[in-house]
Design goal:
By secondary structure, the protein is α/β, with parallel strands linked by helices. The protein folds into two domains: 12-94 and 189-358, TIM Barrel; 105-181, PK beta-barrel domain-like (M1 Pyruvate Kinase, Domain 3, Beta Barrel), CATH 2.40.33.10. The chain is 36% helix and 21% strand. The chain contains 13 helices and 16 strands. The strands form three sheets. Strands 1-2-3-12-13-14-15-16 form an eight-stranded parallel beta barrel, surrounded by six helices. The protein is globular and about 60 Å long.
Amino acid sequence: MRTECRYAPSNPICEVNFLASLRKFMNPKIVANVGRRSGDYEILKKMALAGMDTARLNFAHASNDQLIELKENFKKLKEETGIEVKVFQDLCGPRIRVGILPEEIHMKEGEEYSFSFDKCDANDKTCIPIDSKDLINDLEVGHPFFLVNGAIELIIINIADGKIFCKVERGGVLSSKKGINLPKTNLSGGGLTAKDEIDAAFGASVGVDYMGLSFVQSEEDIQKLRKIIGPDIKIIAKIERGTAMPAIDKIIRESDGIMIARGDLGIEMPMEELPILQKELIRHAHWHQKSAMVATQMMLSMVEKSHPTYAEVTDVANAVFDGADTLMLSDETAVGKYPVECITIMKKIIDRADEYFNKTNYWHE
């Protein structure tokens, strides 16, 4: 049973016995993304035996048929082995992207470009199509406008005639369908799209255990999803927008847990803030008696290699020391060459970190 003092955001009485109160509460679980490399029943079985507690299906790419198949596979797994693996349906959310470009654009610092849903002239190579009609209504002059996972940085200098005019502050190469990040912009559509509503209703009908809501901005996003899926499915609020920070405690209270989605969060917030945010978000989640999941690039090198880097080993262990309840593997198990080995190694790191954290002296274990 957790104590109320655990990870109190600001309570000096709690801080006095911080480490002591944390001991005995570790043993994080492993969530593994299921994809083309890991959808086969025999691979899923090996992943479960290696330590996978929950399987994530990303509905940015997955289908209803895949979800049904996954549920059936885990029913079979439980009958054969007695192991129960939970299902986590991750909703796509309002991902805004660049449209189709005739060729790559090499953006250079100081250049100016415009972005529009339907006002680009085919002969104007500086006008770039986007797939959101309503985005222009949410933006303001001076807002940052990031492309390609933050690799290209622009600033909005004008909004007129159905176009968003931007100046390049850090250049790069832009190609079709790349994502757009807007760290200071509140999107009026919220974190739940029409597609999400349909997917959520289907997930609820087949009985998923967890549902992830992407790009959460406020507690209202959670409330909307709750009305669709009912009280039994646990909602995981994905913290990946800078604009969510002012409402973070309200978001946590309304959800059943949070995912610290370090990929998009690292784009929307200064990168040097990311390790601090990881710790603080876990603290706030636990203060509200909610779970915290750490995700993104935990063992990314194992997409191609059979062994993680030592920096990745340390990252996994430090997430345990931060108090994470769950660690998530994404591309490592969805498209990686070593999904089973990745889970096996992560489990070893978790177990060793857990063992160490419940000892009083490393040198006299």
